[in-house]
Amino acid sequence: MKGGERAAGGRSDFASASLPRHLLRGAVGFGAIAAGLGLLPVLGAVVLLLVPVGLLALRGCPMCWAIGLLQTVSRGRLRRDCADGRCSLAVRTEGR
Questions:
Q1: pLDDT tens, position by position, 60-78
Q2: What are the strands, taking DSSP E only, across the chain?
Q3: pTM beyond cutoff 0.85
Q4: Exposure class string for 61-95: b at 16+ Cβ within 10 A, else e
Q5: pLDDT tens digit sequence for 35-57
Q6: Rounded CA gap, 51 and 83, in Å?
């Protein structure tokens, strides 16, 4: 499943396929936003075109990227169990 698609239960999933890929997207996204805003006095308004590129790399917003980072790191390590209207997170045990 790619990021931004709906996961089970109708929630969005912002995780990437791997941690290095997610960190690379963050470096490109935050770098483009910083360059777009930081180089504005030097290069003029045309450099603002980097800001949408950065937002695209972050899949819309920095918070979405941060949530995706947490999902990418925890993917496969945490298990959610819901019973009787209560849900809890537990560390996934081997063989399950």
A1: 889 989 999 998 888 767 7
A2: 78-83, 86-91
A3: no
A4: eeebbebbbebbeeeeeeeeeeeeeeeeeeeeeee
A5: 999 999 999 999 999 999 999 99
A6: 44
Which two tokens mark 57? 């790399």
Q: Which residues contact 28 (CB under 8 A, 6 or more apart)?
A: 54, 57
Asked whether 91 and 79 are in contact (CB, 8 A), the reply is yes
Cα(81)–Cα(28) distance, integer angstroms: 36
- Tell me which residue has tokens 């791997």: 18
Do 94 and 77 meet the contact criterion of CB atoms below 8 Å apart? no
Structure tokens at 89: 């997170």
Q: Are 14 and 67 within 8 A, CB to CB?
A: yes
What is the rounded distance in angstroms from the CA atom of residue 51 to the CA atom of residue 32? 6
Tokens 């537990």 found at: 90
